[in-house]
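ok trying again, last paste got cut off:
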Amino acid sequence: MNARNDHIAVYTFVVFLFSFSLFCYGFFPLSFSPTTKASFDELPQTIGNASFNGTDYKPRISRAILMVIDALRMDFVLQEDNFQFLNQLLGDGKACLYRLQVHPPTVTMPRIKAMTSGAIPSFLDVILNLGSPEMKLDTFLYQMKQRQQKTVFYGDNTWTNMFPDVFHRTGENTDSLYVNDFYKGDENITKLLSMELQMYDWKLMILHYLGLDHIGHVEGPYSDKVPGKLCEMDKVIKTIHETMDKWKQKYYTKPLLIITGDHGMRDSGGHGGSTHPETLVPLVLVSDQCAKSEETFLQIDLAPTMSILMGVAIPYASIGSMIDPALKMLHRREMLYALYYNTQRLASKVEGILREKFTITEVHKSFREAIELHQLFLKDVTDISVYKRALLLYTSVSKQLTQLLISSYIRYDIVFILIGTVMSLLCAAIAVTQLLQDANATVLSLQPKLFPSINCMLLSFLLLKLLSFEKESFQEPTNFFHAALISLSVVYFTLWVILSHSLKGIKIPSISSSLLSTFIWFGVIFHCFSLASSSFVEEEHQTWYYLTSSVMVLLTLKQVSVMNSTISMIKRSKTDASLIEVCKEERSIFCVASIAFACIHVLVRRFNQTGDKWQHIPDVGDWLSKDEHKVWLSVTMFVGLCYMVYQICYMAGLLTTVLSMTAAMLIYYYRAASGTVRMFGLSASNSSFCLTIFWINLVEIFFIGFLPLMYRAIVGRPAERRTGELYSNCIIIVALLSALLHKPHNVLLVGTLLATSRALNERIDHIADDKYCSIMLKVITHYWLGKTFYFYQGNSNSLATIDLNAGYVGLNNFNIVRVGLFLTLHTFSGPILSFLLLLHHIFSETERDVKYVFLRERIDNSFLSPLLIRFSSFLFIRHQKHAPSSATHNAKEKILLLLNVLIMVPVSFFLVVATVLRDHIFVWTVFSPKIIYEYFTVWLVLIQVILVLLLLPKTLS
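nice, full thing came through this time. structure:
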């Protein structure tokens, strides 16, 4: 049986995507906690020989208000100018401030889950954050409902999506993900708050303000809008406190106000990572019955603490400890009871994991000692020393148990991890062996022998059966289960057959052993091995900056060398001296242009700091974003748009260029209407109208390329114009969309990317030895270029650098399809545009080859003078080695093979690294976000593979 190499490449890529999905399924379990609910009847009644009375566990406050200020950082609370009233309460001893440590991912939905359930959410909850599925875990909200304690809520509709049947009254912000809403949503919450403070039928009120988070996403934590927003929150706190004072005086109640943030905000404005500004949030208790503490507590400690205060059962899934300074209002007997109750729960969970080993640990011994001291105190409640010792032991033991549970909470599905990793490694090996086949071989002969094939199938089935033994022992195996094992066995068998036959045909391609080719493959291998280091993953942009800059320098030096050789050849042929001067002038212009081009790259690299180590350092973008520098930002954006239109001219006709220029003007008008840039004396008002015209322009650009193509297809005429015209117009549309979505100072990146791609293509055309070398250099350099511009715009391997503001350009509400599309196009605009430009150059090269053959035939058949024929031969001398030959290469196949190697090899290696280092301290802060980014990238590459299959001709000529 014969199989085409391009078909094998596509099959291998699909299997690789499937294996990557299996790995992610095993590496990111959807839930760590059971859905079992706690019961009030499970509260301990005795401790040893002593028994508790019924008053040891009851509500300690009359009603509570939990005020969640989204993205509230620890340092925001300490700003006395912005939180004047709150800091006055802290100074007068009427409030207590604590530090809470937040576990990544630092996004809203997982943080709400942690606060209410006391459990650590799955890392994949960062993806589910947009959907906010219904909460299945036990929470203190559920326990309050079971005790007939009513809860009301106002704010982020994430809560109402997670708890659809919990709240007695709600007033949710239905567009909570619309980040351009700084004030309206918060003002609505405050209005409803004033009404709710007059009601007396609720026990707990939850407020979730979003304005601060939205300002951070759009303008960052140092925006001039942040102080005003913090002052607004301070006024809300003052209003609530004044009302609570009235309740105390009139009804002699004990209300409590709790202020916290679901997560913090990094210095660049986003969140989702693990930096200190993101993971350290304040917890303020407005009460004169709390104790100050400099200790750092965990966010999951809030759930058991709230349960104790409200007098309900602690959620079954909770693994948090008590925030004991916040429980100062409890009497000694009640305090020890609460600590014993929670510690006993934690101890039983740890015992279920460690079994008999737990009884010989120091933690268990300390717990037994605390119980004995507790019993002594119940006999003599005046013994303060026994109380303090028991209190200290309970607190220490519970925190140690919490840490043990946190470390054991990460339950990998090692079966899926191993299956996915091994399968991905096989796919990567096939990709490498395919690349090393004979360049002229387009078909692989697959002739598996019967008995070895049967043995391979049986062996793979038995290995999979052995791996799945643990899963099978918990439940009866089904027909579907066995069918899945057989299917996986078939996949493994086909991979083995392809790999074994590919190994027989390995032949090193005839690639020039030049410094450039050597560096290219060195860069591919270096990047692959650099992923074994967490520091290199955090600072991956440095790798791409180095590789791209180096290859551009090498290409420049190589082309200068070719120019020098051409000048020397012309001198030896005794050609006219004026032609030599023209060539020298061309060389000088090229050198000056190369230096200027390098300077542009140095400039745009400074626009956005990224990575982890230097991300907090102010950059050019931060400087331009300040109000006092708005003029410079306007100039930068104007220059960026002009430069982009100038580069579009190389791909577009006259009408398309005019429409592109109009679209660029509308982009500037939109930013001016939103107040980001200035119109230089003009006032912009209606942004929605200009965006409507912008979309119409994009549709017109598309149909300029589409309608002639359809007309020629209908009437059956041959393509007189270039076949890539529609494709070029699509690239222009993507470029204009990217410019619309980018921050104003990043618009220059779009034009720079277009120019860099064109420069790389021209230089490779001049210096490549043959077609194979040309394709190899173009694919790899464009892949590197896309990665480089991905980091140029400020992206990183941290989830916190995703700019949510780009998803809402031109939108007044949340639409998951449009927001998802805009976010994808903005975040991955560099790789997307770079690949599209690569295919554009392939189209152009095919067209140029055809025109070259036609022109050579015209020259050879004409009665031109020998001098003209001689001059025309010199004119085409650089292009001669790229002219069509009898051994044309399959361009589609070579691009697919190179894409497979560039994607599969580093990702497979990284999956092995993540598997080996799954217990590493940085597994959730460095490796896991990188896996999510790579998984999304593989899906984007699948779209690229489809484009290659559909658009590219089989050969280059």
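cool. The two ends are 29 Å apart (CA to CA). The chain has 35 helices and twelve strands.
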